[in-house]
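Sample pair:
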Amino acid sequence: MEKTYREKIRWLLKYCSEYDGHEYMYDEHVREDRFDISLHIEKDILECMKTARIVVLTGDAGDGKSRVLNRIQTELKEAGEETRWEYTNDFSALSREEKNGILTKIEAVLEKDASHRLMIAANSGIFMSEIMNFRRGLFKKLENSREAVIVDFSRRNLASEQGDFFHIVTSYFDIGGCRVCDGCSVGQDQCPFTDNLKKITENGEEGDRRRRQLRTVYDGLFLKGIHVTFRDLLSTLSYMITRGLTCEQLEQMGPEERKEQLSYYNNLFTYDKNSSRLLMELRSLDPARRDHRADRKIFYEAIGNQIEKEQQRGKFKSLIREMYFDGPDRLLEGGETEGCSLLNMEYIREYLTVIRRLKEEGFLDAADEYHHILWKFELGINRIFSPERSDAQLVLFDSPLIISPRVRIEHEAGDELQIYFCTREFYGERKERIPVSDLSSFLCVSVVDRGDGGEAFEEKMAVDYELFRQIMMASESRYDANILNKADDMRLKQFISRTFQHLSSGKRIRVKWLGDAQSRYLPFELYPVRQIGIRNRNDRAGAGKTYRVGRG
């Protein structure tokens, strides 16, 4: 049915959390005029259903679990296979008796080879709580069974697959059947809503570039650890077009205000203190907040410096945001690529360098040309566990007698410990589940080689972008105890603790004795004559056993 642009905007606003009438925000319960498209994940699940007898879709509210289940149910119905499966659209909404009935069937499939075929959509926390209360150990059995597939939507990155992301955006913003509005005082040629829709959905190279840059923004959120649900994505896309305003409100604004403030790139990145947390996270990525000299040069070439400072600031931000979508190549500096490096993300260039290198080689160590990144990473760990932190005291049980058993470990960059980065595939962990092409984190591995012909110990820690950023900040002495969240802080502590538990008294290490309450700490060094490299760490020929112990 043909619609006006005004009607299209009204429809988009129903998905926008910043608009009071956002009735489609909970669109799994909406049947009329619902936005409904097929994504690649549905094909993957249908393939799994050929062999599995239990499929559980878990995640947060708004992740699209019910949407996917409904689409699969429809597709199987059209193929005449719907009756083979029992569907639970919302496990969380069931009564206790109904939940126990489903869990009883799961148990029967796993332990009694029952013939049930179950497909369940459930919020992660509720499903986990119910299955653990029903019977301890049942979830573990479900997780490890070949009869079951658990799809965790809370780990899904909607921007990971370009084809899917482009399909979502172009279908959601589709204006192919829209006609000009009657009686609009703004005028079709002056309407920012219409202009935004046309630019994001435009066919050809320019439209693809804008959609690719938009996808990079959501990929940046994923790297920062922000989970964007399907509901969140539709809401923020609606806001990008409308800023939560109706056509009637638009008509009350002046021409300059409409043109300057309501462009899609300013809507996406402009700060508003009343915005949702997700919109605030989006704005933290604003490319206009980067401190790059190239940006300033471009600004003065395009605009000059003869206008008022406040106007300069506003025009500069607007120009850089527009160029992020329409001319990203002009913003790039040496060694950068078009990806997240243009967003306001600290150390993203170094992080992407590591990721790219790991995709190519599988590992990065002290012999690699990019060792300077590894060096700073080690230095950051060292400084996080610096003597200024009262909670960084570690007990080294096998330290030399000359050193107190209560010591602080100084993880000296480049020397005292061998560290390398690697993919999970290179390390041999979960190879079948994490393809290298989807790499968004890596393993930091410490190597403890006793040097006496014994086994070389390795301790690993999963490193994502956010943890990488925090450690790199610490390498520049910008560490703040409040920066690390509790989970990341614990990851670091466990990694360091496990590493040094493997050390013998004959290992290269720097320690700091705390002394008593009245005296300052006394530093000591303990290291061998000859360093063993990471690449040939198993080659101990000629490894020295003479060590020096002294004050640092």
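The mean pLDDT is 77.
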